[in-house]
Amino acid sequence: MALHRFPAGFLWGVATSAQQIEGARNEGGRGDSIWDRFAAMPDTIEDGSRPDTTCDHYHRWREDLGRLRWLGVNAYRFSTGWSRILPTGHGAPNPAGLDFYDALVDELLASGIEPFLTLNHWDLPDALQQRGGWAARETARAFVAYAEVVARRLGDRVRFWTTHNEPWCIATLGHEEGSHAPGRRSPQEALRAAHHLLVSHGWAVEAIRGLVPAAQVGIVLNLSPAWPASPAEADRDAARQFDGFFNRWYLDPLLRGRYPADAVADRIRRGHLASADLPFVQDGDLDRVRAPLDYLGVNYYSRTVLAAGPDGLPKAVPAAPREELTEMGWEVYPDGLDEVLGRVTGEYGVRSVHITENGAAFVDPAPADGRIADPRRIAYLRDHLLAVHRAIAAGVPVHGYFAWSLLDNFEWGQGFTRRFGLYGVDFATGERTPKDSAFWYRDSIAARAVADGPESCIARRKP
Ligand code: IFM
Fold first, then answer.
1. What is the pTM of this model?
2. 411 Cβ below 6 A of ligand 1
3. Given the CA of residue 17, which atom of ligand 1 is nearest to it?
4. Inter-CA distances, 271 with 65, 66, 157, 248, 264, Å
5. Exposure on the CB side of residue 297, measured as CA atoms within 13 A
6. Omega before 182 within 30 of 0, i.e. cis
7. Taking CA atoms, which of 151, 228, 268, 283 is between 20 and 30 Å from 362?
8. Smallest Cα–Cα separation from 78: which of 120, 33, 129?
9. Separation of 411 CA from ligand 1 center, angstroms?
10. Domain residue spans in the chain?
11. 194: buried, middle or exposed (CB in 10 Å: 19+, 13-18, 0-12)?
12. CB-based contacts of 131, cutoff 8 Å, min separation 6
C-alpha cells in the first residue's frame, strides 16, 4: 500500500446546493423556484417527493457546519438560493435571504473553511420562468443583476465564485428532454437557453470582477468522455455527436469563442437550426462568453459509451456489468477523469481546474452503531482521488476536489431515491448519520493523502 500525498494548499471540500438541502420552501421570504413548481406537477419526480423540507439545512445549518469542521475540509462548495434572495427574480433583494448566506459565510471563515459559492445551481425563480425563463434573453440580464446583489453583499469575504452549475443539464434536461424543470421539450428552446446561460456567464464574470477585484471566477461543467461502443464508423460518429453537444457545445464558446461547427451542422441536419447563422447569438456575445476564466470547475461522474441508434442519433449503451454501475446507472470509471483533465488543460489550455463534484449513489444499509457501512462509496472516492493525484503528478493544474455530497439530498427527478451523501439523512426526522466514507474522507484530509490498496486497482477496460 502506498500513500499518495497532495500538494500543500490543495482544497479538500464537499459540495451541496441550495435547492437540494435547504428546504424551508416558504420561510424567510423565499419565493418559489422552477423546481418547486415542477415537483408539484404529476409524474415529474420518481418517488413523487418535493424539495419543500428535504434536509432542513435552513434550520440545521449550524450543526451541518459542525460536520464540515469534523470532516476537516478547508473548502465548502454551496449555492445561494436565487429565489431566496430575489423571490420574484427582480427588484429589491430579500434581506432575510441575504442574511442567511451572510451568516453562513462568516461562520465558514471563522472555522477556517473557504466558501466556494455557486450562483445558479438550477433554482431559477419561478417568476422569471413565467417571463420565458432561460429561453428568453431577459433572464440573462436578470442573472447578472442577481450576481451583483450577491457580490455586493458577500464579495468582501467570498473569493471563489461560480456562475452556473452544469449548463448542459439546464438546457438539455430542462428544455429538450423535459426530465428536469421547467419540463420543456423543445430543442430550439434548449439551444437558446444554452446560449443565454453562456452569455450571462460572460456578463456576470465582468460584473463580479468589477465589484470584487480579488475574485476567482469560473463556471462548472459536467464533462464526460464519449467513447464509441465499437470501432464501426457509425458508432464513432455517434460518439462525436454526443461529444459535440455534451462537452464541446460549452467548452468551445467558453474557451475558443465559437460553437463547434460539426455540432452546429448536426443540429441543422436534425432541423433544430435553419442555418449556421445562429439566430440567438448577437454581435459581441461570443467575445463576452470567452472572458478568461480563473478556473474551470469540472463535475465528473462517469464516461459515456455511445452506439448509433436506428435513427443515426447517439444512444448511450451500458458499458459495464450491473455491479460496476452506481445507482444512477453510471459506470464507475476513474480513468475517465484523467482523460477529462488531460483534455481541458491540454486541448483547451485551461490553467486551473477544481473538481467541483465527484461522488456516487449506492444503496446504503440501515445505520448500525451510529454509522452506515458504504465500502463501495469509499472505493469510488478513493479511485477518483487517485486519478486526481496522477493528474497532478503529471503536471495538470488541479487545485481542489469537492466530494458530492455532504448529505443525502433531493436528487432532482429522482427525488430521495438516490443517496450521494457522506452522511445519511432520515428525511422523516432530519437525523444525519455518518457513513464510513465520511470517516475515510476525514482521515484522508487529515493526512492530506490517499492510500491505495490492492482493491483500488480498477482494470483499465475498453468497450
Ligand atoms: O445532484 C447532482 C448535482 O446537483 C449536479 N451534479 C450531479 C449531481 C448528481 O446527479
1. 0.97
2. yes
3. 4
4. 50, 53, 48, 20, 11
5. 27
6. yes
7. 228
8. 120
9. 7
10. 3-451
11. buried
12. 89, 138, 139
Burial class of residue 452 in the structure, from the number of CB atoms within 10 Å of its CB (0-12 exposed, 13-18 middle, 19+ buried): middle
- Identify which of 325, 380, 405, 406 to mutate to test ligand 1's pocket (most ligand atoms within 8 A of the CB): 405
**Whole-number Å distance between alpha carbons of 256 and 259:** 8
Q: What's at 185, amino acid-wise?
A: R
Polymer length in residues for the chain: 463
Comparing C-alpha atoms, which of 107, 24, 35 is closest to residue 66? 107
Cell output for 232: 464501426
Q: Is 123 in the pocket of ligand 1 (CB under 6 A)?
A: no
Determine whether 125 is exposed, middle or buried from the number of CB atoms within 10 Å of its CB (0-12, 13-18, 19+). Answer: buried
Q: Decide: 199 and 140 in contact? Cβ < 8 Å.
A: yes
Q: What does the pLDDT average to over 419-424? A: 99
Q: Ligand 1: which atom is nearest the Cα of residue 361?
A: 9
Q: Which CATH class is domain 3-451?
A: alpha beta
